[in-house]
Amino acid sequence: DPDLPFLGVHLTRMIDGSVTVGPNAVLGFAREGYPKFSFNLQDVAEYAAFPGFWKTMFRNCQHGLTEMKNSIWKAGYLEACRKYCPSLAIGDLLPYEAGIRAQAVMKDGTLVHDFLFMETARMLHVCNAPSPAATSAIPIGEMIARKVAGCESSNRLRNQTA
């Protein structure tokens, strides 16, 4: 779905010749919840206290429920995968390690699809970097360095002393 900042079902050939399918994107109930059924009450309470969370949930309820179902029920995920590779069988789908990808959400419930920078008097904050790999990509680092250099030249990030 192009309205969502996630890849959806996709096939990736790995270096060893194997092929991975996925990943899907589901809400994590723990910020560092790598095991499938991780839960952290404090993290969930913080999500629930943010107004944008509820707006996002209501706006994307059907899609989110489908992704959660497919995360738990292998046959549902197989059906989605067969749109791209009809010959897949249930035995072809093996568990794979989970990854965690943060997703920035605005107060109005809008999912942030692109980079989001916020500047303060002396700092540049990278609030959203859409791909986990992008945070270590050299061109992205160069772009951030140019932004910082531009801020320094306009004295927005200079050391302010009284």
Polypeptide structure, described:
With 162 residues, the chain is α+β, with helices and mostly antiparallel strands. It folds into two domains: 11-92, no CATH class; 116-153, no CATH class. It has helices at 41-49, 51-59, 61-72, 74-81, 138-153; strands at residues 11-13, 19-21, 116-119, 124-128. A two-stranded antiparallel sheet has the order 1-2. The longest helix has 16 residues, at 138-153. Mean pLDDT is 82; it is low at 153-162.
- Low-pLDDT sequence parts: 153-162
Distance between the termini: 52 Å
The pLDDT mean sits at: 82
Rg measurement, Å: 20 Å
What fraction, in percent, of the residue positions are helical? 25-40%
Structural class: alpha+beta
| SS elements, strand count | 4
Q: Bin the strand percentage.
A: 5-15%
> What is the number of helices?
5
Largest sheet: 2 strands, antiparallel
Coarse shape? globular
Give the total of domains: 2
Helix-strand string: EEHHHHEEH
Strand order of the largest sheet: 1-2
